[in-house]
Write a structure and sequence with these properties.
Strand content: 25-35%
GO cellular component, one term: cytoplasm
CATH topology of the largest domain: Threonyl-tRNA Synthetase, Chain A, domain 2
Keywords: Coiled coil, Metal-binding, Zinc
Protein name: Alanyl-transfer RNA synthetases family profile domain-containing protein
Order of helices and strands: HEEEEEEHEEHEHEEEEHHEHEEHHEEHE
Number of domains: 3
Cofactor: Zn(2+)
GO molecular function: alanine-tRNA ligase activity; aminoacyl-tRNA deacylase activity; ATP binding; metal ion binding; nucleic acid binding
Length: about 425
């Protein structure tokens, strides 16, 4: 038989949709330094709490305390268990609320949780149980990791799943959501739980809190959940990736899923207007654009290569090439220098966000000698970079160049006995 919730001081266990509670502050402690997780300076213990403490992959609640005597409001930045401060057994740690401002002890307050934040956490957590239960029932995989983040939630499974297989699971999960089945939460003694069948069963010496989603999943859990599957609304899987010996799936549920769909809809509508084509033709339209961009990139590279070859053919001397045309990308210049066949030293300079990027080709004998251009750039202008004789790539900061770029290049050409080419 399940244990009566009234034995507990965690009010969120008894009433998961309760947003406020009038309780007493019974202990206040000033921290020796700011709490690194929340920035709080005080931790507060109350006679009861409607605030959920961080645990089971779910963040702790935030909200406010309202002093009922002075009507002053205090922000609650985080809620967490504190095993060290507890004088009870480790299975029953104290729950502390972390505040930026000091609050008096032995006063009545009204607790008010950030309900929007709590509700979306409950939607994600209940969804995790549905997805984990369905995957376990069909494939036998265990949920070995769960993280409820600020924007996305992830589950790690200990076996392989394809994106298509996970989408089939999500389809089943949404059908369960729309059936609006009740989610039953009960607490049992360790002896009672020993004879019960539930997922991820481990041996516990204390009370066991079970979350029962009919015909889907029964699992031990300390987190907050929605009252019925219909309160989740919608489930979307956004990514499936290989992780360790299994997969990590990323999902959105409830208000997060709705927001995601709205954003995707706005993007789609904008593309429909920009491309002047029906929504269902967008993929084909994007493919056509990709092909057109690829053709233009090839044309640009051919043009750049033609200009480069023409410039080098005009001079067989050692040359400094000033790149002014934006058709020469760093990626393209790397390719040019890696494939360069020249017995001359070639230095390309490009202005980039207040600095000068360079690409340098030298013959093997020059590169390893005191006549090396790279050695000169390092010694005279504190150039930083690396590579070999075929191609050295690096950067010169403008604050190491005393004169304007034109004067710098002229002086450099004189020092290196090089020809100047402008592209």
């Amino acid at each position: 038989m399940s244990k009566d919730f009234h034995d507990f001081k965690q009010l969120y266990d008894l009433e998961p949709y309760r947003k406020t509670a009038e309780v007493d502050v019974i202990y206040v402690e000033e921290l020796s330094e700011k709490d690194p997780q929340s920035g709080a300076r005080f931790k507060v213990l109350t006679s009861e709490t409607v605030f959920y403490p961080e645990g089971g992959g779910q963040p702790g609640d935030t909200g406010v305390f309202v002093d009922l005597k002075n009507n002053k409001t205090y922000k609650v930045l985080d809620t967490r268990y504190d095993f060290k401060a507890s004088d009870t057994e480790e299975e029953n740690p104290l729950i502390f609320h972390f505040l930026a401002e000091e609050i008096s002890s032995d006063i009545p307050i009204r607790q008010e949780i950030d309900w929007e934040r709590r509700f979306t956490h409950s939607q994600q957590h209940s969804t995790e149980h549905i997805l984990a239960g369905l995957v376990h029932n069909k494939y036998g995989y265990m949920n070995v990791g769960f993280h409820l983040g600020k924007e996305y939630t992830t589950i790690d499974f200990d076996g392989p799943l394809s994106y298509k297989e996970m989408q089939e699971i999500v389809d089943q999960a949404n059908n369960i959501v729309w059936q609006n089945n009740p989610i039953d939460i009960k607490v049992y003694t360790a002896d009672e739980a020993k004879n019960m069948d539930y997922r991820a069963k481990i041996e516990l010496n204390n009370l066991v809190r079970l979350i029962d989603i009919p015909n889907v999943d029964v699992c031990a859990c300390c987190g907050t959940h929605v009252k019925a599957t219909g309160d989740i609304g919608l489930i979307i899987c956004t990514n499936v990736e290989k992780y360790r010996n299994g997969v990590r799936i990323t999902f959105l549920a409830g208000t997060r899923a709705y927001k995601y769909v709205r954003e995707q809809q706005e993007i789609s509508n904008a593309l429909v207007q920009r491309l002047n084509m029906p929504y269902l033709d967008l993929e084909e339209g994007v493919l056509r654009l990709e092909n057109k961009v690829s053709e233009l990139e090839t044309l640009i590279e051919d043009t750049a290569k033609s200009l480069w070859d023409k410039a080098l053919n005009q001079s067989e001397q050692n040359s400094i090439i000033i790149i002014t045309e934006n058709i020469f990308s760093s990626k393209f210049l790397k390719l040019l220098f890696k494939n360069m066949e020249s017995n001359s030293s070639i230095l390309a300079l490009i202005e980039n966000q207040g600095n000068i990027n360079f690409f340098l080709h030298e013959t093997d004998d020059i590169y390893s000698s005191n006549e090396s251009w790279y050695k000169h750039l390092k010694e005279e202008y504190n150039a930083r970079g690396g590579g070999n004789a075929q191609m050295t790539q690096g950067q010169i900061q403008y604050n190491n160049v005393e004169a304007p770029l034109e004067n710098f290049v002229s002086q450099l050409a004189e020092d290196l006995s090089a020809n100047i080419i402008i592209l």
